[in-house]
């Protein structure tokens, strides 16, 4: 019996434990932090051995295979020991994909992957049996065990791709690449880029690669690296023969001389970046033979993703918008770009080596006041204090929202788009977004 050790007792860890047990592995789960009660109950009910608030090396270093949570960096001492011992380390998507024959659609990118994955799933589920997993929702491994869908849309982070070996999606989507998480890649952008491109490394000419042809970083990488799969680019600026492009507010998608035209006038999601997300999702749907009418209707009635440019409430003619999911500068770039009224901008958190220069033009044009919400706001203050009349610091969400309420006039927007990680003051970006929404509702 092979021994499977799982580091991390969260959604992906517990899902992998269940699948591993069902596939006759001897399973042990180890978490350095506290395992949530709901996950402990699952492990106990399924008689899976686990520990939390510690890692017992003797119980870990005797593994045949280790599934590590994507949150654990390679520089952790235990991970180094595991690698030195020559034990195979994989991510959940690598482990789980061995046990399904389903068609896999893998979506990665610095921004837009959650929206694109959720939108793609929304379109496909109208006509196909499809699960949504990866970096989102219920564990991929657990779905393979319990729901066994014919298709999966997987939202995949670079951390999950770092630990693949044979993982091979039928369709890979790369939304864009901008600097993010560089602290995990020795502050070398090229390491992060290479990590994202691992999504195509096992693909063959029978598979498909859908990508943003307006993204210089992607194009530069493709000039010097051979990609085996069939390429289907999408673009807002150039005409594309095989793939998708924009022509007079219509998305034109062509695959093997089969053309479909989708009007963008009634897209549920606003903003140029969402036209791209719609292009990627429709190209996947077109490949999987979803009817044109279904694709169009699905794009028009999609509700969007929580914490991503989510319209919360209008109070005294001021629109409050929750974009807590903007954990890097590029995501905030899209948010500010889509603002069409003077904006009070709430920004800040854990800076991941951010460069704010690309935001300057929007701040000059659209932002009337900035509220810095973080433990250390020095870099933000330095970057923006000469651009706006009002720049204020706080460490409380409720206070940030009250200040915004005082600063905003009828017709303005109040935008939470932090451009940073949330771990200094909040549990995660969801917690940050919920606190914002609660504070707005309590005004």
TrEMBL record:
Listed GO biological process terms: cell division; cell wall organization; peptidoglycan biosynthetic process; regulation of cell shape
EC nos: 6.3.2.9
InterPro entries: Mur-like_cat_sf, Mur_ligase_C, Mur_ligase_C_dom_sf, Mur_ligase_cen, MurD
Positions of the Mur ligase C-terminal domain: 307-420
Reaction(s) catalysed (UniProt annotation): UDP-N-acetyl-alpha-D-muramoyl-L-alanine + D-glutamate + ATP = UDP-N-acetyl-alpha-D-muramoyl-L-alanyl-D-glutamate + ADP + phosphate + H(+)
The keyword Flavoprotein belongs to this UniProt entry's keyword annotation: no
Keyword entries, A-Z: ATP-binding, Cell cycle, Cell division, Cell shape, Cell wall biogenesis/degradation, Cytoplasm, Ligase, Nucleotide-binding, Peptidoglycan synthesis
A Pfam family per the record: Mur_ligase_C
Pathway(s) served: Cell wall biogenesis; peptidoglycan biosynthesis
Coiled-coil ranges per UniProt: none
Keyword Lipoprotein: no
This protein's name: UDP-N-acetylmuramoylalanine--D-glutamate ligase
Species of provenance: Winogradskyella psychrotolerans RS-3
Gene this protein is translated from: murD
């Amino acid at each position: 019996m092979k021994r499977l050790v799982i580091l991390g007792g969260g959604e992906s860890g517990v899902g992998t434990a269940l699948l591993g047990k069902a596939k006759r592995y001897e399973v042990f789960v180890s978490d350095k932090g506290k395992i949530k009660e709901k996950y402990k109950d699952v492990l106990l009910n399924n008689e899976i051995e686990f520990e939390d608030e510690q890692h017992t090396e003797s119980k870990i270093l005797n593994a045949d295979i280790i599934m590590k949570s994507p949150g654990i960096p390679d520089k952790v001492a235990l991970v180094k020991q595991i690698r030195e011992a020559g034990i195979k380390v994989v991510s959940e998507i690598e482990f789980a994909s061995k046990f399904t024959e389903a068609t896999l659609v893998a979506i990665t990118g610095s921004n837009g992957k959650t929206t694109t994955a959720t939108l793609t799933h929304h379109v496909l589920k109208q006509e196909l049996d499809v699960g949504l997993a990866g970096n989102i929702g219920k564990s991929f491994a657990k779905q393979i065990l319990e729901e066994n869908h014919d298709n999966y849309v997987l939202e995949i982070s670079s951390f999950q791709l770092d630990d693949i070996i044979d993982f091979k999606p039928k369709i890979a989507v790369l939304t864009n690449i901008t600097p993010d998480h560089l602290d995990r890649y020795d502050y070398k952008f090229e390491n992060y880029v290479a990590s994202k491109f691992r999504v195509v490394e096992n693909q063959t000419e029978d598979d498909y690669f859908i990508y943003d042809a307006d993204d210089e970083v992607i194009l530069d990488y493709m000039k010097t690296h051979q990609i085996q799969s069939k390429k289907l680019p999408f673009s807002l600026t150039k005409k594309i023969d095989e793939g998708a492009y924009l022509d007079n507010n219509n998305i034109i998608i062509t695959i093997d001389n089969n053309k479909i035209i989708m009007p963008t006038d009634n897209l549920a999601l606003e903003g140029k970046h969402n036209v791209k997300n719609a292009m990627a999702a429709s190209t996947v749907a077109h490949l999987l033979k979803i009817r044109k009418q279904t694709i169009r209707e699905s794009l028009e009635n999609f509700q969007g993703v929580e914490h991503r440019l989510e319209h919360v409430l209008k109070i005294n003619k001021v629109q409050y918008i929750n974009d807590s999911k903007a954990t890097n500068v590029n995501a905030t770039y899209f948010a500010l770009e889509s603002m069409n009224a003077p904006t009070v901008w709430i920004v800040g958190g854990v800076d991941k080596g951010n460069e704010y220069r690309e935001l300057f033009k929007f701040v000059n044009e659209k932002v009337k006041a900035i509220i810095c919400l973080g433990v250390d706001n020095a870099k933000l203050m330095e970057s923006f204090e000469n651009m706006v009349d009002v720049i204020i610091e706080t460490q409380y969400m409720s206070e940030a929202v009250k200040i915004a309420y005082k600063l905003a006039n009828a017709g303005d927007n109040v935008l939470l788009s932090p451009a940073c990680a949330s771990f200094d003051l909040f549990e995660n970006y969801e917690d940050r977004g919920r606190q914002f929404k609660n504070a707005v509702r309590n005004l």
